Amino acid sequence: MQTLNRDGVNLAYEEAGHGAPPLLLVHGFCGNHTHLRPQFDYFRGRHRVVAVDRRGHGESDKPEQAYTIEGFADDLAWLCHELGLYKPVVVVHSMGAIGLELAARCPDLPAALVLLDNPFSPPPEVQAGFQHLLAGLRSLAYQDVLRQTADNLIFLPTDDQQRKACIVEGMVALPQQVIVSTWENFLAHDTEAAAAACRVPVLYIGSVFPANLVRWRELCPPLVTGQTVGAGHFTQLDAAEQVNAMIDRFLSVTLKGREQ
């Protein structure tokens, strides 16, 4: 992987391919760039594709600091500028709040967003569960809490079990401070406000996480939705062909329509 240094922090990324619009691939909670490998390999044939390890994750530096949604969005905007990514389609797994915040803060930067199975305005019982998870992540047993969350919420029994084990072990290997700060700032983020400020086309591809699509469409009329079949939260890995086909269609129809 290559790195760029932003104010003393190395941010890692992988790049391949040529063609517009470029795609910027962003992993989810406790993830890394390999979690969008099928999309990287599929789209690199016709597009310039950049997959990042967010600050605190993967091969990027992990300073002891606050890990906020706003900070992640600012890192992505900076990377786009440094790499000369013009009007990228930003694809974000799980933590779609990062993509929405980026579009709200930098309205002229992205051409569109693709958000993969991110919770949006979930019901009160789910929000309570997310708060309970935060308490567990702050405890000494945070690794066990993450493993239980993977079993109960993230994966389906039909998902690839070897892949699941690899993903989970990567999650629990992250510094606890990164895990806790990321999750507490995710919960504190005003994602509805970011969605209301978003003015670019958005494709949401759901799987197992709850999303209030009625509320989302009220705030963000450009929203287009899809749903995968037979996959857990890492739908871009376990149902890669479905996800890639929907992104392909979104790019060919939505973006061409905006060019006319």
Named CATH topology: Rossmann fold
Number of strands: 8
The gross shape turns out to be: globular
Look at the structure and give the mean pLDDT. Answer: 95
End-to-end distance: 37 Å
Folded structure, characterized:
47% of the residues lie in helices and 16% in strands. By secondary structure, the chain is an alpha/beta fold. Strand 1 (2-6) and strand 2 (9-16) form a beta hairpin. Helix 2 packs across helix 3 and helix 4 (124-137) runs antiparallel to helix 7. The longest helix has 20 residues, at 240-259. The mean pLDDT is 95.
Question: Could you outline the blueprint of secondary structure elements for this entry?
Answer:
Blueprint: E1 2-6, E2 9-16, E3 23-26, H1 37-43, E4 49-53, H2 69-83, E5 89-93, H3 96-105, E6 112-116, H4 124-137, H5 142-154, H6 161-172, H7 176-188, H8 191-197, E7 202-206, H9 213-219, E8 223-227, H10 235-238, H11 240-259
Parallel strand pairs: 3-4, 3-5, 5-6, 6-7, 7-8
Antiparallel strand pairs: 1-2, 2-4
Helix pairs in contact: 2-3, 3-8, 4-7, 5-6
Which terms would index this structure?
8-stranded mixed sheet, 260 residues, 11 helices, Rossmann fold, alpha/beta
Q: What does this entry show, briefly?
A:
47% of the residues lie in helices and 16% in strands.
